[in-house]
Amino acid sequence: MILIGGSFGGSRGARPVPPEKGIFPLDHLHECDLAKKEYIACLKSSGYQSEKCRHLSKKYLECRMERNLMAKQDLSELGFHNATTDLSESNSNNQSGSSPGKSTSTS
């Protein structure tokens, strides 16, 4: 028996399997445009050194997850490990002074 393939070589009747990651709904309502624009501006101003804009890429992904534009998942699975995130947050806190609610005792 000879099966005739569908368009682009696919078999007719075969159910497509969506990719795990990489394709997600577009932001038609522009809900995360501000976060996206901040990230792109940071990339341009830093000479496209993405590590300097990591906090903004995290903010953008969080925005997409909050608005169901991508599956919710732990940010550590997306490459945002606590050490890196804590380092960038502590640098921004050190520049603006210490936070009033944080204790720095070592006991």
From TrEMBL:
Residues 81-107 are annotated as: Disordered. It comes from Zingiber officinale. Coiled coil: none annotated. It comes from the Eukaryota. The keyword Disulfide bond applies. Residues 32-66 form the CHCH domain. The keyword Ribosomal protein does not apply. Residues 88-107 have a biased composition (Low complexity). Keywords: Disulfide bond. This is CHCH domain-containing protein. Pfam families: CHCH.
